[in-house]
Design brief:
The chain is mainly α. Helix 4 runs antiparallel to helix 5, helix 6 runs antiparallel to helix 16 and helix 18 crosses helix 20. The longest helix has about 40 residues. Belongs to the major facilitator superfamily. EmrB family.
Length: about 525
């Protein structure tokens, strides 16, 4: 009987792992498909932005809501419903005849992705006990780390061999498998909502507040030249902050709140969400810039980039189960803090390696250290976050950790992007006049390069038309140097972020040996 129970537990973990992997993969996998989608829908990259943004927005906004519904009505039920929704929406995405239908179905798919992600940790915590819980959460952390970094590789391969619909169709068989395994092997958790009223006001306020903040950040990311005082940025950002303040006030006074705001008074919980934010803003956000460096500037294809980024993601598979064993013997907070410092050293090495002739050979030592940090911290964070939570709070704790991880990623992409663009633009302003070209050409080229930003400046400088200009080589050298200045600043900024995360972990987190019981 014991052996049969053990087998069921690990098969249940496969089901939950599949749900997490698909939900997180679909945040990044679309990036490499955009050029093919643009041709398929006969549209521009700008119009395709909402294929990405609709998923990111709805995913972040619904994480806490799905967590609360799982806590109240049974996590297995909501997780299963989320899997079904995600799988059906994936099929619709692949068949979408118009961009509008694709955008809408991506938003629906994100609700399913948020449900599977936010409830997976809580389900693992309730389906496993003792040392096996730490090991299972470690394995789940490995899956989180791998899924976030493997988008370019998986997406690139599928698009190259089967076309863009394949990145969505591939979810269908795995989704069906996860549904079957969940029904048969995952144990349901108690329903804590039998005597509670659903906090619809709290859910509405949290969703609208998060939506406004993330929307403002997405606008700024898409239009870096816009001022922070632009109404589409400052208006939504200010409104989001005010709405979340109102949300906190409301939650303090309702009988059955969506979220116990007293959790934020606990130093240990503050430490865990600070580390989650650090992972997003330091490590996951940096992956975006590393992908652009490899594809746009070094010249690797999407698949070649993905293979090389296994230098980062493979560590999650190796270290995740190991952290589950180590966390039972050693201090989680110090393992997290030290691992983040290792990641900081990795970013420092990456900054030092940036040059006009940079290649994977120069980057891999820093990437390895970055991968070790991610592979250690993610599963340890899951365990540390869950171990002091009451059973009825586990879903919400899981949801909040994921909200701060996702919010950190969005903030990091915007913040690091602004730092990169400022350094890039300053270098162009300082050095472009050294290129021997007519003043009229200088003015137009400078404007085009600045408007394109660091991500796309390379395509202008190395375009077929520009290659014919007598000053092409000098111009290209300046553009590459400007980009390198920005990339070095991004790597150093990420280094600072993870070091601050290490300080937060060491000073706020507590070592818990006796988890609380309900």
């Amino acid at each position: 009987m014991t052996e049969q129970k053990n087998t069921k537990q690990w098969v249940a973990l496969i089901a939950m792992g599949l749900g997490v992997f698909m939900g997180l993969l679909d945040i990044t996998v679309v990036n490499v498909a955009l050029p093919t989608m643009a041709r398929g829908f006969n549209t521009t990259f700008t119009n395709l932005q909402w294929v990405l943004n609709s998923y990111t927005l709805v995913y972040a906004v619904t994480l806490m809501i799905m967590s609360k519904l799982g806590d109240m009505y049974g996590r297995k039920k909501i997780f299963l419903g989320s899997l079904l929704l995600f799988t059906v929406a994936s099929a619709i995405n692949g068949m979408a005849p118009t961009l509008l239908i694709l955008d809408i179905s991506r938003g629906i798919q994100a609700i399913g992705g948020a449900g599977t992600m936010s409830l997976s940790m809580a389900l693992v915590a309730s389906n496993f006990e003792g040392k096996k819980r730490g090991l299972a959460l470690g394995i789940l952390g490995s899956i989180i780390g791998v899924s976030s970094a493997s988008g370019p590789l998986i997406g690139g391969y599928l698009v190259e061999h089967f076309g863009w619909p394949a990145i969505f169709y591939v979810n269908v068989p795995f989704g069906i498998l996860a549904v079957v395994l969940t029904i048969k092997y995952v144990q349901e958790t108690p329903s804590y909502g039998k005597n509670q009223r659903l906090d619809l006001v709290g859910m509405f306020l949290s969703a609208i507040g998060l939506f406004a903040i993330i929307y403002a950040l997405i606008v700024k990311e898409s239009h870096p030249a816009l001022s922070w005082l632009n109404p589409n940025i400052s208006g939504f950002l200010g409104a989001g902050i005010i709405i979340l303040i109102v949300f906190v006030i409301v939650e303090k006074h309702v009988k059955d709140p969506m979220m116990d705001v007293n959790m934020f008074k606990k130093p240990h919980f503050l430490g865990t969400i600070a580390v989650a934010f650090t992972l997003g803003s330091g490590i996951y956000a940096y992956n975006t810039f590393l992908t652009v460096l490899m594809q746009n500037y070094i010249g690797y294809s999407a698949v070649q980039t993905g293979i090389r980024q296994l230098t980062i993601s493979a560590w999650a598979l190796i270290l995740g189960p190991l952290t589950g064993i180590l966390s039972a013997r050693y201090s989680k907070k110090w393992m997290i803090a030290i691992s983040l410092l290792v990641g900081g050293l990795g970013f420092f090495l990456m900054a030092k390696s940036i040059s006009p002739t940079v290649s994977f050979t120069d980057l891999w030592p820093g990437m390895v250290l970055m991968g070790i940090a991610n592979g250690m911290v993610n599963p340890l964070l899951n365990t540390a976050g869950m171990e002091n939570a009451l059973p009825r709070e586990m879903g919400m704790v899981s949801g909040l950790l994921n909200v701060f991880r996702q919010l950190g990623t969005t903030v990091g992409i915007v913040g690091l992007g602004l730092i990169q663009n400022i350094r890039y633009e300053n270098y162009l302003n300082k050095s472009l006049h050294q290129v021997q070209m007519p003043d009229s050409a200088l003015k137009g080229i400078k404007k085009a390069l600045i408007n394109a930003g660091a991500f796309s400046g390379h395509s202008i400088a190395f375009s077929t038309r520009m290659e014919k200009a007598p000053f092409a080589k000098d111009l290209q050298r300046v553009v590459i140097d400007a980009y390198n200045n920005g990339m070095m600043a991004v790597a150093i900024s990420s280094c600072i972020i993870v070091v601050l995360g290490a300080v937060a972990a060491a000073s706020l987190m507590r070592n818990r040996k006796n988890p609380r019981k309900d």
